[in-house]
Amino acid sequence: MSGVQALSALEHRPTAVIISDQLRERIIDGAFKPGDQINEAQVASQLRVSRGPVREALHRLVQEGLLIGLPNRGVFVREITERDIAEIYEAREVIECAAAEIVTKLDDAERDRIADELTAMTTEMGEAVAAEQWDLLRRLDLRFHMTLVEHGRNRRLVRAYSTLATEALICMAQWSGFSENNRSRVVPGHLDIVEKLRSGDMEAVHLALHNHLSLDDYQLHTHDDDGSLRHGRPEE
């Protein structure tokens, strides 16, 4: 089952938000593949709703960057290029570092509480690796990073990161390079971030996030030649 057939009836909740959530999930799991056209009338028929909320849902996903609207042709699932992937991961690093900098300034007890919460998530990741539940692992991975950003207590960082997280899930699900990565590194990599965050050493946190989110051969960062890490802001 793929595409429109993978959508389920909305029963008595025909809202644009619910429709966009369903479509987003079907894009993430590959039911709708890159380049596929999403036909407004077919979606409305499958979900047993009028075309108005479907049109609004498609517009939401175009704004999120998951779909692209082509004049006189329709709406299509955006094809993610290698350059897109590199940009997504660089943007993730910028946002996560901004949130982490806020967290590192919290008192020791609060940082410990956050670190303990994130550590518990790595236990779930380890269980997913052992069970070879790769889709679950991808979602736990993104939940870890989303939780880190949420602890920065900046609603706009959270909102920006939510869209990036969806794009990152699509990258991990659809690009073979991610599925073939050495999964034995997943838990240790996240634990390293946790322990650096617990220490309150922002430079160490930044380095850990940079190493974790960098992609081989797609280095877009403009860090200084001496190896110092910053994102375009002047530092003393």
Automatic annotation (TrEMBL):
* InterPro entries for this protein: GntR_C, TF_FadR/GntR_C, Tscrpt_reg_HTH_GntR, WH-like_DNA-bd_sf, WH_DNA-bd_sf
Pfam families assigned to the protein according to its UniProt record, in alphabetical order: FCD, GntR
Q: Which UniProt keywords apply?
A: DNA-binding, Transcription, Transcription regulation
Q: A GO molecular function for this record?
A: DNA binding
The record, for PROSITE patterns, names: HTH_GNTR (PS50949)
Domain HTH gntR-type intervals: 13-80
The protein here is known as GntR family transcriptional regulator
State the organism of origin: Leucobacter tardus
Lineage runs: Bacteria, Bacillati, Actinomycetota, Actinomycetes, Micrococcales
